[in-house]
Amino acid sequence: MRFLFIAAGSAATVFGLAPLATAVRNAGHEVFMAANDNVMGSVAGVGLPGVPVSAVPLLDFITKDRTGAPVAVPQGMAEGVRYTGTWFARMAVAQLERLLAFTAHRPPDVVVGGTLCYAAPLLAARFGIPWVRHAWDAIDATGADAGAQEELAAELAELSLDGLPRPDLFVDVCPPGIRPPHAAEARLMRWIPVTTQRPLEPWLYAKDSGRPRICLTAGSRVTQDAAEGTAFLADMVKALSLPGVELLVAAPDDVARGLRAAFPGIRAGWMPLDVLAPSCDLVVHHGGGTTALTGLRSGVPQLIFPQGAFSVRGAQALVDYGAALALDPQQAAPATVTEAALDLLHSPRYRARAGELSRDIARLPAPPDLVGALTAL
């Protein structure tokens, strides 16, 4: 069988789909991964054949309509969620031309799309084949579908559809302990962290003299907006440089060079979080879903500064469960950040709750266990 996995415009969307895509290929099936041009390096990095489908910069989908005219980005929670579906739908339209050109030569038997990859149901409906919705993080994103459906009204009408078709299978990686009671029926799958790797130095997997270890990262926020991401990291370094604590800053090398110049002696650079996380006592980050899941897999408490409606929602789920604290990045004073970090480091209840979610994840079926469900479609 031939499977087409469709990611989006950030490396996280590629890494989220990679474990199941690799499992399908290892079971003997033909697998391709389509994604925006800017993340083709990440697709190649996980060893999958990559199909570039859009050269449009990610920010253009967010800030411009289909004609290229600027649009105002809503700030409210509900409006932000709905609007996210709108701009992901614009991305789907931009991807369709190259997707159709590819599938004319290699028609898939099953299409697997990431959480907000609306090109997947459009393509599947056109060919009359099954499609799978694959969550790439633990955030319930179905609230975005209304915005996508409105944006795609013409494309859906062309396919004689009055709405977005339901997936034939939903693969969810959200740990049961924080999965919303209203979440759609799904096959649950264990989260397997994937990232760009590099040769390991001992300090990446071994703590320094037993000191508490904090990992600070801004994830894809740095690559999407280098100035904003760098400023966030610099502010956090000032607040988290605590006596008797080892602080590591996981960031792209170009950003890390500036941080090392500003804070002599700090250890900053590209660090594979899947390797680093098990040695950490606290992960401080921007609210990215893949970062949060990678920390949870290792049972590490988190201090989250969420950006955007989905990040706020995901962070709140961890706060409600007792595995994290969240602060408004626009309002958190350095002293507040320091106080929250010390609370997370020294109060055992956070690690206990994070450990429960780690065991939740470990008990779920691994990606190879779901291959049969995909081929049965």
TrEMBL record:
Erythromycin biosynthesis protein CIII-like C-terminal domain span: 246-377
Leader peptide range in chain numbering: 1-23
Pfam families linked to this entry: EryCIII-like_C, EryCIII-like_N
One example of a Gene Ontology biological process annotation: antibiotic biosynthetic process
Domain Erythromycin biosynthesis protein CIII-like N-terminal: 23-219
MF terms (GO), sorted A to Z: hexosyltransferase activity; UDP-glycosyltransferase activity
Assigned keywords, A-Z: Glycosyltransferase, Signal, Transferase
Family that this chain belongs to: Belongs to the glycosyltransferase 28 family.
Protein name per Swiss-Prot or TrEMBL: SaqGT5
Natural source organism: Actinacidiphila bryophytorum
